[in-house]
Amino acid sequence: MTTRQALPLYHTSVSSLRVRDFLDVRLSANAAYWRSVEEFESAYGSAHGAAEAVLVPTGRDGLRFILEFLRTPGRTRVVVPALGDSSIMEMVLDAGLVPVPAPVRPSDGTLDLGRVEPLLDRHVLAVIPVHLFGRACQVERLAEMTSRQGIQLVEDCAHAPLTQHQGRWLGTFGIASFTSFAPFKLIDCGGGGMVLTNDRRLAAAVRAVARRHVPIGLGSLAARSLASVALSLGTSRMPYDLVGHPLYLRMGSGGHAVRFYEDRVRPLLKHGADEGVRGLPALPFVRSGLRQLIGLASRLGNQQRLAGLLRRGLPLGLLLEGDAGSGSSEYAQVASFADRDRAMRVLVRRGIDAVPNPAEAWGDCPVARRLQREGVLLPWFDKMADQDVDLLRKALVEAAGTIGHGPGAAFD
Ligand SMILES: Cc1ncc(COP(=O)(O)O)c(C=O)c1O
User: Fold this and answer.
1) Span 179-222, pLDDT tens digits
2) From ligand 1's centre to the CA of 258, what distance in Å?
3) Closest ligand 1 atom to the C-alpha of 87?
4) Which residues are CB-contacts of 196 (< 8 A; sequence separation ≥ 6)?
5) Position 42 pLDDT exceeds 90
6) Pocket of ligand 1 (CB under 6 A)
7) Assuming Cys at both sites, which of 28, 134, 309, 385 could form a disulfide with 32, CB separation 3.0 to 4.6 Å?
């Protein structure tokens, strides 16, 4: 029996891709490609008030290139949040450095600065605050803490492009930042990312490595599109990755099959997918990226308005939420339930296509492990109608009423 999902987890749109740009892929000389790249870079940089923006093959590559530039003898450690995307850990290791997982806050999953401070010493090269799910980490305070000790701040803005915090753009609080244009990010170029910085030397070094990568060819573009369509047939869910697929949901989280998939299959898929597409986005995607950037402010505005509607009347602490007055792109909504499986059953019965929190947890941080174990990623996109948000809100109220919700007192 299939459950018909009234509210799909993701909404994909190809409206920003233009057929004539695809024709150009075949016809264009290299010069046309690099002109579009430079146009995108310069628009991205000036939208954020940054002197330099550099297109990179993936967000994680952007981080690796930055770390390789910053490398300093004697400073071998990099402080990263204990909750987030595993690519951050991998890149720190790839750069020959040691990741130090730091505690996160129960309210929004961003770095807990009180607990980060004791980790900062003369062996630390950099701290990487992640604006998880769009909620701004307290970067203004972190910038002060790190600069006192000669430690670099490198923001992960994969979930927070064009997002203001304390009157300033996220991504401009430290020496450099990076964002991702992977599928389903706020700007989706099917892959790719951007590094932002005011440091000309850093930009030149990153550009020199990034430009060694060639744009993804038509063959891989076609293969990726086919794989994406095949995996999302009959659903509107995430391609390349079976988490969120109806089959996966029906296996139930925590079951043997799921664990086998998570431990054995998913890492292979992830790695394979990343390796297969490591290249700069092709011309149609670069042009589409620029168009998406131009429309982003209004899309974010709508998303922020919808987030206000969603929170109205919801129990406090049910959703991850930053401090009052801090910035947020509202990229995703994540709720926490003590009994996640039961909560998800209530949501699915209500037609809400929810999946377990996709963030991963590392190190000795009970808050991160709990947010990962109890978190539910909810359907969320800027084209949702107000009635959809209302449906979601009512389902959350019902689930919270039957089950109770986190974060609980056992956190500390
Ligand atoms: C928070 C976060 N940081 C970094 C990345 C890495 O970006 P990319 O996939 O472009 O390497 C992602 C997404 O994959 C992410 O969600």
Assistant:
1) 999 877 899 887 899 999 999 999 999 999 999 887 876 666 66
2) 23
3) 6
4) 44, 45, 48, 50, 52, 53, 157, 171, 172, 176, 177, 178, 179
5) yes
6) 58-60, 84-85, 87-88, 130, 156, 158-159, 180, 182, 193
7) 28
Nearest CA to ligand 1 atom 8: 59
Q: Could you write out the DSSP letters of every residue in 118-172?
A: GG-STTEEEE--B-GGGBPP-HHHHHHHHHHTT-EEEEE-TT-TT-EETTEETT-
Q: For 117-162, write each residue's pLDDT tens digit.
A: 999 999 999 999 999 999 999 999 999 999 999 999 999 999 999 9
pLDDT band at 271 (very low <50, low <70, confident <90, very high): very low
Residues 74-98, mean pLDDT to the nearest whole number: 95
Is 123 in contact with 151 (CB distance < 8 Å)? Answer: no
Q: How confident is the model at residue 316 (pLDDT cuts 50, 70, 90)?
A: confident
CATH number of 20-210: 3.40.640.10
Query: Identical fold at 20-210 and 229-411?
Result: no
Residue 241 pLDDT greater than 80, yes or no: no
Q: Please give the model's pTM, rounded to 2 decimal places.
A: 0.87
Residue 306 CA, ligand 1 centroid: distance in Å: 24
Atom of ligand 1 at shortest distance to CA of 60?
11
CATH 3.90.1310.10 holds for 229-411 = no
Q: Decide if 402 contacts 350 (C-beta within 8 A).
A: no
Q: How far is Cα 253 from Cα 329, in angstroms, rounded to an integer?
A: 29
Q: What are phi and psi of 136, to 5 degrees?
A: -70, 130
Spacing, Cα 312 to ligand 1 middle (Å): 30
